[in-house]
Amino acid sequence: MDRFTRATEIDGKQFATGLLERIKAEVEAVKAETGVVPGLAVVLVGEDPASAVYVASKHRQTVAAGMKSFEHRLPAETTQAELLALVNRLNLNPEVHGILVQLPLPAHLDPNAVIQAINPDKDVDGFHVSNVGHLATGNPALVPCTPLGCMMLLKDTLGENLAGMHAVVVGKSNIVGKPMAQMLMNAHCTVTVVHSQTRNTAELCRAADILVVAAGRAGLVRGDWIKTGAVVIDVGINRIKVDGKSRIVGDVVYGEAGHARAITPVPGGVGPMTIACLLANTLTAFRRHHTLAIAA
Ligand code: NAP
To answer: How far, in whole angstroms, is CA 222 from its chain's centroid?
Structure first.
């Protein structure tokens, strides 16, 4: 077997472009049906440059999808009370169907209190305990965008039916690992979650039909951790120096994964899906609000 030539590259960029086109068409349709434009509010507190780039990109793509974008840039000194008051105003604003507070927040602000203050029906990040609970109990929920994007790529690669597959998730963060595991369980996979304290991580990964890696550790997953024919989703985004130049790489050594059935590249795999899924969630929140049918 040639270990290094078979894996199909899962093109997240292309998938996300198609998803954004479908969202744009749906936005037109719901506007025509209800006379109301779906709206997404994004709140940025402080000057974190990476967050500012994400927020600008979210604004651009929201407008491109035909939705209303409400951007709130607050100074770093904003108090908890001021931020909660803004969230409350957005909760009450009928033009806003989705609310996202960009994380991380400056250290003096409590992100959990802010997230729990968002109306769960507008919680397009899927971080509110109400949505976390609905996901855990297998009920309709607004779910976190990155694992939602991973599920879309998995189903596009493997088909809708993932039942009975052994999925291993590396990482147990609230943002990626835990909701990913819940979604895979809800899709009737057998799910193993490994983390930094797991004793036999390599052996567990080798048993995976589906391997989702979200550890934030460049080069963690080597070729011999991957079963032949597995589908590998690399969520990791790590900036490393190669020959003095800065490069973005995932958590999986891509060049050693040729014996996988398919793998997401970094960049160009999961990354482009996240904002597209944010807009998909905003549309879902809008549809629920207007009691329109939810697209599958
Ligand atoms: P996080 O909160 O730091 O969580 C990392 C998880 O990985 C933790 O559960 C940790 O275990 C586990 N871990 C760390 N080292 C490990 C090791 N050697 N073996 C096994 N597990 C290990 O990170 P996150 O927010 O989930 O993000 C993970 C990665 O995905 C990062 O690179 C991030 O940049 C990327 N990401 C990408 C997107 C995207 O749009 N593509 C979105 C979100 C995140 P413990 O719990 O035991 O500490």
So the answer is: 24
